[in-house]
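Subject: design request, 301 residues
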């Protein structure tokens, strides 16, 4: 009898109905895709496994090669898990304002961490990763330009949403960081039903929402195709954080800030449409944000 290994449990995450956030008089249904149920705790498990598996299959990498990646957190944790499974040394470069839980999780899996300043941010981390590759220090997987990223969602997340919603999904809402999730899911859902509306979430100017970005033009992810997104919504940091806390306290769904933003946008959408089935991505779990104090606000009566 052959038993499964941990990588076989990436994907096939639950799609659950929100029960208490949506107006009870609403004709709409809000479904939440719980990506925190992946083994390393986020939606990034999917592209991490995809990028490494497909690079191996092409012969681009082999066990023992050092991998390098710039990350704001979740991709780094996911890559650290996959690298540990497969025996790759891994260097991760990230801004130093990431939460302690994220840094500790990467280190626990055995990754080497290089921190850049908050001012350098993800742009600086990406530049350093490419410089290290040019200097022969390892191979950059490049989640921002690697088509194996959205392919993971085209072959996995998208079909799961279609099947789990019984083909009834009418709107898909996702935060946008590397944009891999929204690119892959959009491609798949539009092939099934071109009428499905794809809504992308970006932070308002000045907002700092972990995992999502309003990229400068020079750093816009190469995998991003604006034709695959029907509408882009700008989200305030305060609203995303408030909805994140409400998800835990009213739905029992413990998640991060970008997920709160996606659900806030979904609730706004539900006030504009009728008889819709709205699916939002819950990107990760809330436990990797505890040290930030975001959950310390007293519950509203």
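Subject: RE: design request

Done. Sequence follows.
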């Amino acid at each position: 009898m052959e038993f499964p290994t941990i990588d076989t449990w990436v994907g096939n995450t639950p799609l659950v109905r929100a029960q208490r956030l949506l107006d009870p008089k609403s004709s709409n249904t809000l479904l939440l895709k719980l990506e925190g149920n992946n083994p390393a705790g986020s939606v990034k498990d999917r592209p991490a496994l995809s990028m490494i598996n497909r690079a191996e299959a092409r012969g681009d990498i082999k066990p023992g090669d050092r991998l390098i990646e710039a990350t704001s957190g979740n991709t780094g944790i996911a890559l650290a898990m996959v690298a540990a499974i497969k025996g790759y040394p891994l260097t991760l470069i990230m801004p130093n304002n990431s939460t302690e839980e994220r840094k500790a999780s990467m280190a626990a899996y055995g990754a080497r961490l290089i921190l850049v300043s908050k001012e350098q941010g993800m742009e600086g981390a990406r530049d350093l990763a490419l410089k290290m590759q040019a200097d022969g220090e390892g191979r950059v997987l490049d989640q921002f330009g690697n088509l194996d990223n959205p392919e993971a969602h085209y072959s996995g997340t998208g079909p799961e949403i279609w099947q789990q919603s019984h083909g009834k999904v009418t709107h898909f809402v996702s935060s946008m960081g590397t944009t891999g999730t929204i690119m892959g899911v959009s491609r798949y859902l539009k092939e099934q039903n071109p009428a499905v509306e794809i809504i992308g979430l970006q932070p308002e100017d000045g907002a700092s929402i972990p995992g999502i970005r309003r990229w400068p033009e020079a750093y816009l992810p190469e995998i991003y195709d604006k034709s695959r997104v029907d509408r882009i919504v700008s989200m305030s940091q305060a609203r995303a954080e408030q909805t994140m806390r409400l998800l835990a306290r009213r739905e029992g769904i413990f998640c991060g800030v970008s997920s709160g933003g996606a659900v806030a946008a979904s609730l706004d959408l539900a006030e504009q449409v009728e008889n819709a089935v709205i699916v939002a991505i819950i990107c990760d779990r809330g436990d990797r944000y505890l040290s930030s104090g975001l959950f310390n606000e007293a519950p509203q009566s």
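The helical segments are 45-58, 74-86, 100-108, 121-134, 148-164, 180-192, 237-251, 257-270.
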